[in-house]
Amino acid sequence: MNDICAVSTPLAEGGISVIRISGDNAVKIVAGVFKPLSRKSVEDMEGYTCAYGKITDKDGRAVDDGVLTVFRAPKSYTGENVCEISCHGGIFVTKKVLRLCIEQGASLAGRGEFTKRAFLNGKLSLTQAEAVMDAISAQGEYALNSANLTKEGRLFKKISDMSERFVKILGELAAWVDYPEEDLPEIQEDNLRESLEEALCGLNKILADYDSGMVLKNGVDTVIVGKPNVGKSTLMNMLLGFDRSIVTDVAGTTRDVIEERAKLGELILKLSDTAGIHDTQDKVEKIGVDIARKKLAEAMLVIEVFDISKELDGEDRELLEYVKSLNKKTIIVLNKSDLKSVLRKEDFEEYSDHVTEISAKLDEGRSSIQKAAEELLGVTGYDADSTIFANERQKSCAERAKKYLEAALESLNIGETLDAVTVMIDYGADALLELTGEKATEAVVDEVFSKFCVGK
Question: What are the chain's domains?
Fold first, then answer.
């Protein structure tokens, strides 16, 4: 494989930038760019050592000073020779150092190419490689713990143990079917049934955690709806912890959709503060109301806001019925609890099991909204030390494996021949091996790493 290089830190002004080079000739390439001050040459450096020195162009002119770290194959991230140049974090100087490496013979790395090489060189399984990006993109403790567990190899080991057991069973079944005249031990159906049931139990756990995992990793599309002037914008500002939406006593101030992310515990709510949903003759306001209805239809979680100091009117009841008809996960917020209440929680029980009184103005009630959201979205009670959240590719493989193993178990239970059982187990084992990457096609591998950032 050719030698590759890329900027592995964000391309923005900062304290330092890191340029990573990997390949058989990585050390030689860097020797043409970096001149250590405390030793004779880069090529004399051992693995896991650093040197301070000057970064120079082909004419020997100093471009910057920095630190070089050398990792010798196979004890490196990619399994190849790897060098990392840490220079000052200016955008121009970073690009300049990268160009110097390219001039010395390195090619610009593609998305995820360093981690892809780690996978191809046996340093990581496919699930461990995917966990690298999960760790980078993690926005909460659960998501990070899950990524670290996967990166440690927990998911690979769990699936690998299943697939190894079935590969062994397939070998025994094949020998028993193909050589009936040999004195081979007969396959014990009870043992086979137990293996299938244990595998299905493990796959069901992975699939059950998937939806909650996506919620914790990617966030939840959440819409705040209500009539004008019930406190939707004040509520959004309270959830965000800063003033994002304009708050006035004038009804209809919000005419467009304002979007931000709010972190409630481990949950990320992708909030949309919409225009008040009501009948209006104002053309501009009507556009905002139509957009609000569209956002409402697309959302996973809806926060309906009502003014606790005012009786429900026809528009309030119409909104309640409309949201109910959409069958959304809904939290009903009775806002302005600092004023005299004329509404009761009992009035809203048919519309949601999660009704809470708050005062967004006084910043009271954030925790009750968090608790309701966690219960609605099923993200409470996780064991952070054992829960692994699968991604979409892994889920697809697990679903296919489950389908085939369920078919194998059914065939076994109704007394079909072991030939039929063997076919289904074979398909199931293939799906498990694809999940771990041990039998993944080149197209699957390319798709996985296409989602990575350049430089990782």
Answer: 4-109 (3.30.1360.120), 137-214+391-450 (1.20.120.430), 219-377 (3.40.50.300)
Query: Between helices 442-450 and 392-413, what is the axis angle to 10°?
Result: 140
Q: Where are the beta strands (DSSP E) in 98-228?
A: 107-108, 220-225
Q: Which of 10, 6, 1, 11 is nearest to 102 (CA)?
A: 6
Residue 270 CA to residue 274 CA, distance in Å, equals 13
pLDDT digits (tens, 9 = 90+) for 60-75: 999 999 999 999 999 9
Task: Kindly state the tokens that stand for 358.
Answer: 């708050």
Residue type, 402: K
Instruction: Please count the other Cβ atoms lying within 10 Å of the Cβ belonging to residue 122.
Output: 9
* DSSP state letter for 204: H
275 backbone φψ class: left, alpha, beta (φ>0; ψ -120 to 50): beta
In the prediction, which pLDDT does 181 show? 52
401 by Cβ neighbours in 10 Å (0-12 / 13-18 / 19+) ranks as buried
Bridge partners for 304 per DSSP: 225, 332
User: In the chain, what percentage of residues exceed pLDDT 70?
Assistant: 88
Helices (H) then strands (E): counts for the chain: 14, 13
Structure tokens at 104: 């010395």
**φ and ψ of 441, to 5 deg:** -75, 165
What b/e string do you get for 131-144 counting C-beta neighbours within 10 Å, with b at 16 or more? bbbbbeebbbebbb
What is the maximal distance between C-alpha atoms in the chain?
A: 90
Mean pLDDT for 365-393 is 86
Q: What share of the chain is helix, strand, coil (3-state, %, to 5)?
A: 45, 20, 35
Residue 220 CA to residue 421 CA, distance in Å, equals 41
Indicate the pLDDT class of residue 276, thresholds 50, 70 and 90: low
Peptide linkage before 10 cis (omega within 30 of 0): no
Cα–Cα distance between 337 and 365 in angstroms, integer?
A: 10
CA-based nearest residue to 169, from 154, 153, 189: 189
Cis-peptide, bond into residue 36, ω within 30° of zero: no
Q: Which pTM was predicted?
A: 0.78
What the block records as the tokens of 23 is 């390949």
Identify the DSSP state of 106.
Answer: P
Structure tokens given for 394: 């892994």
